[in-house]
Design brief:
mainly beta, Porin, 18-stranded antiparallel barrel, 1 helix, globular
């Protein structure tokens, strides 16, 4: 039953949420190991990155003058508490990006995280967490329907939820999420600004264990999104049947299917479409693998309105050379976003983010990593494609300290 509850919790945490994309060369830190009590961990690192599209321009636009070498300094502080039934974590990370040639682009990338988990009984648990980020470019925001631009953004994400195990065969979870996305404004070019907005969403899941490996159930999600400057809000209802199957102690399959419904508003027609997902995960001795596909309707804070989003994710982490000192971390996300509402100036977007990182940890407190990251996006229009490649290395140090 704990296995089923774990899967249900993953579904709550994996619901469409605002996430800041992991930064290559700007904040990967040695894995923390927490003992009971309070632990404070200062982290500092430095990175060198070659970026071949610093302005996120499209193809054939100042390509010979659109690359630079960026030095990144990233201080970070992590405070964590581990108790018998309670875990608390918080962190601040700041990255100062210093461009060798185009120093007018120098700026900070800052992120704050707070989370709290509590196990009241063996059957009842709850959690709450929040994130805030001030980002220099929109390709760092992990949400659908956002064109990649060299535009600053501020993102907020808060979530709280509970998990309850009834008897020995049923697990229930529910969560509430609040999100806010705002983009930098320019008086010189007000008509080209991205939209931004807020969203509130709930997600409830139920799983019933049929045997030691298989659990079936249902998921229901409700989202209401309001775009900046608009009177009307968009409402989305998603209903799905679901199943989780443990192939082995290491492998887990999850899948669900149903429909998504968007009621009519004064400025848009009602729509109904398919909603489904499938994922596979493996966890074993420091090795992890995950892959998944999802299709649904998603509010689009960048271009405004609602898009039909198809999303594929994959990633893995593994030691290298049969050594705990060498490792690889690779991942990719592909999205295909088709506009559903026509009151905004919308174009379809196909987006790709991919990265690979190879690291060496000569000491537990030091990691040396080389990385490559690629970002691509196209609006399927002439001149509407951009690509960005970054390659570099970073050195990250950390020193956990017990607080008595």
């Amino acid at each position: 039953m704990k296995r089923i509850a774990f899967v249900a919790t993953l579904i709550v945490l994996a619901s469409p949420a605002l996430r800041a994309q992991e930064r290559m060369g700007s904040g990967a830190s040695p894995a923390a190991s927490y003992r009971p009590g309070w632990t404070f961990t200062p982290i500092f690192g430095v990175a060198k990155t070659y970026d071949d599209n610093i302005s996120l321009f499209g193809h054939d636009t100042a390509e010979t003058q659109n690359n630079d070498v960026v030095t990144t300094y990233f201080p970070q502080a992590d405070l964590h508490y581990t108790g018998k039934r309670t875990q608390f974590g918080s962190s601040y990370s700041g990255s100062f990006l210093a461009y060798r040639t185009y120093d007018a682009l120098n700026r900070w990338d800052q992120r704050v995280r707070v989370e709290l988990k509590r196990e009241e009984t063996a059957r009842f648990r709850w959690f709450a967490h929040g994130n805030a980020a001030w980002l220099p470019t929109t390709d760092l925001i992990d949400l659908a329907g956002i064109p990649f631009q060299h535009t600053g953004a501020r993102t907020l994400d808060g979530r709280a939820g509970v998990e309850y195990i009834a008897g020995g065969r049923d697990a229930f979870t529910t969560s509430l999420t609040a999100q806010d996305v705002q983009f930098d404004r320019s008086l010189q070019n007000p008509n080209s600004q991205l939209v931004g907005g807020q969203m509130m969403s709930t997600l409830s899941t139920w799983r019933h264990r049929l045997d030691e490996r298989l659990a079936v159930g249902a998921d229901y999600s409700y989202r209401v999104a309001h775009m900046t400057g608009q009177i009307e809000s968009f409402n989305l209802h998603v209903v799905q049947a679901a199943a989780d199957y443990a192939l082995s102690p290491e492998w887990m399959l999850s899948a669900g299917g149903g429909f998504v419904y968007m009621p009519a508003t004064l400025i848009s027609l009602a729509r109904t479409g398919p909603a489904y997902y499938a994922s596979v995960e493996r966890h074993r001795e420091g090795r992890t693998f995950h892959a998944g596909y999802e299709r649904s309707y998603i509010p689009a804070f960048g271009i405004g309105g609602v898009v039909e989003n198809q999303e594929v994710r994959a990633g893995f982490k593994t030691p290298l050379f049969h050594s705990r000192h060498f490792y690889n971390d690779t991942g990719a996300v592909f999205r295909n976003d088709e506009p559903l509402t026509d009151q905004f100036v919308q174009l379809p977007l196909r987006s790709l983010r991919a990265y690979t990182l190879v690291g060496w940890a000569p000491q537990p407190w030091m990691h040396i990593e080389g990385f490559y990251a690629r970002t691509s996006q196209t609006s399927l229009q002439a001149g509407g494609r951009l690509d960005r490649n970054r390659i570099g290395f970073q050195i990250v140090t950390s020193k956990p300290m017990r607080i008595e």
